[in-house]
Amino acid sequence: MIKTVDLQKSFGSLRVLNGITNEVKDGEVVCVIGPSGSGKSTFLRCLNLLEIPDGGQIYFDGVEITDRKKVDINQIRAEMGMVFQRFNLFPHMNVVDNICLAPLKVRKCSREEAEARAYDLLQKVGLKEKALSYPDTLSGGQQQRVAIARALAMQPKVMLFDEPTSALDPEMIKEVLDVMKALAKDGLTMVVVTHEMGFAREVADRVMFMDEGLIIEENTPEQLFNNPQNERTKLFLSKIL
Amino acid sequence: MGYKWDLSVIVRFLPVLLQGAALTIQLTCIAVGMGILIGTFVGIGRVSKNKLIFTLSSIYVTFIRGTPMLVQLYLVYFGLPAYFGTIPPLMAAIITLSVNSGAYVAEIVRAGIQSIDRGQLEAARSLGMTYPQAMRYVLIPQTFKRIVPPLGNEFIALLKDSSIVSVIALEELVRKGSMIAGRTFRAFEIWTAVALLFLFMTLPITQLVNYAERRLKQND
User: Which of A163, B45, B159, B210 is the most exposed place for a label (fewest CB within 10 A)?
Assistant: First the structure.
């Protein structure tokens, strides 16, 4: 579904991605782990072109999206949901309007249709009673669940999660992970940058370990966590497990 | 120290001064209104990635902020007729004040947009919104709240600076004061009255700005 070939990205003189070649298959849940500064967030942000890669190609459903002349990036982004570490809900709108905005303006849905789906999604993330609340009245965990619903409202083909629980208080992490687990169970294609090894172990079809802008090792969670092959993977896992 | 105050002069000419004050307020309101219109577009231009738009709006803002409003007024009133024929003083005043205010409002709008967390734009774009859509539905509505206090200050500044148009014989408050003072030789009384009238106009706005700032702080 998303294929990257020799993806490269630098910020100034700092090389963040050193040539990433990978493919995320339809229905697959891929967790990306690695030390901070390893380039995993940048990799994820390149996938929907929030960061423009310096080199290499990205193919989405077989179409090269790094060829800016051929594709409308807004159309591509509409098919890829993204969830951010800091939620990034729109503070001037209530929960339902947050969820409905993109379907209304990008998909040109009718208000009835958009709202009906918004309430369905809120039910799914367990926040129907917060529909008319404003983001700043919600806890971090609730805000992140709304953010997930907002991304899902576009009915994306794939969801990108950029450390979705890293800004949460410990007691709120579970409610967000539970929602993500349910999505994985429904067969949604997901790429998740995370420090939650328990989640990766339980939910991922494949875990990618990144360091210094490269995929060092990738495997099923059982193999990668129990039987890492690369020294750097072993070192990283020994520090966090 | 033998000067004797004659308050009757103020009483007698107060209606005339109030006429002047009315024109001052009208000029300021029109100019700030136009300024907000111009400033919103130019302010958005100042955060644009489009080089041409950015450069043009930057030149405008730099030129206006870097030159005296008096010179701008002369340029419009005495300069432009070279191309456009005579411009009536009122028109020249409105053009100058609006264009001037537009540049300052543009900087307020630019600062407002840039004060919004970058994640807001990213979230909007990640949902497939175009840059103009993200601006219109996500960023600009959030800047409104933040730019109310500085806009109030701009209004006060312009209300005072509008007195410059007295030099092209527009009979706003300062011009009226000058005429009466010249006629009555009661400069101290008249200019005191003019100063107080300005104060009466700016004070409520200052209060309003303070109130708005307090309200916004509570909401953040």
Answer: B210
